[in-house]
Amino acid sequence: MSLGYISALDKDLADTIINLNGIPPLLDAFTNEQEDHIKSASAWSMGQIGKHSSSHALMTAKAGVLPKLLSTFLHPGSSEDLKSKCKKALRAVVGNFIHLQPLDSLLQVSVHAKALVFFF
Predict the structure, then answer these.
(1) How many other C-beta atoms lie within 10 A of the C-beta of residue 119?
(2) At what angle do helices 2-9 and 36-50 cross, to 10 degrees?
(3) Sign of the Cα pseudo-torsion (35, 38, 44, 46, in order)
(4) Contact at 8 Å (CB) between 25 and 66?
(5) For residues 48 and 4, is the Cβ–Cβ distance under 8 A?
(6) Cα angle vertex 19, ends 17, 25, to 5°?
(7) How far is residue 87's CA from residue 118's CA, in Å, rounded to a whole number?
(8) Distance CA 116, CA 101 (A)
(9) What's the pLDDT at 112?
(10) Which of 5, 45, 74, 89 is most exposed, with the fewest beta carbons within 10 Å of its own?
């Protein structure tokens, strides 16, 4: 969460975290940890990093954050807090896109989620 708090303060601090490869450890914690409160903190932190500008959002998207956030948001076993943090992070990052290309990864997750709903 400290990376999220630092990133929330200033876009230059968020740049520093991006340049020092701060997103991959957050994504790793989000992906591999079992407890929802750790995943929630990671999702929130990644949203704080990507919220400042289109370049911050693009770097967050290039790290592969968006499909993980969306699939966790759509997962029925996710807690309400985790879903809320994923939704806020997605809104913060996607709201800064000036190009549509980073959204391609979200379309793939949406198609797979609808296929799962259809077959089950």
Answers:
(1) 6
(2) 20
(3) negative
(4) no
(5) yes
(6) 55
(7) 23
(8) 25
(9) 52
(10) 5
Rg (CA), the chain: 14
The token pair that represents 56 in the structure block: 């911050």
CA-to-CA distance for 79 and 40, rounded, in angstroms? 9
pLDDT less than 50: residues of the chain: 114-120
Q: What distance in Å separates the CA atoms of residue 57 and residue 90, rounded to the nearest whole number?
A: 10
Token couple for 110: 């949406």
Looking at residue 100, its pLDDT comes to 73
Q: Which amino acid is at 60?
A: T
The pLDDT value given to residue 117: 43
Identify residue 104 by its one-letter amino acid code. Answer: D
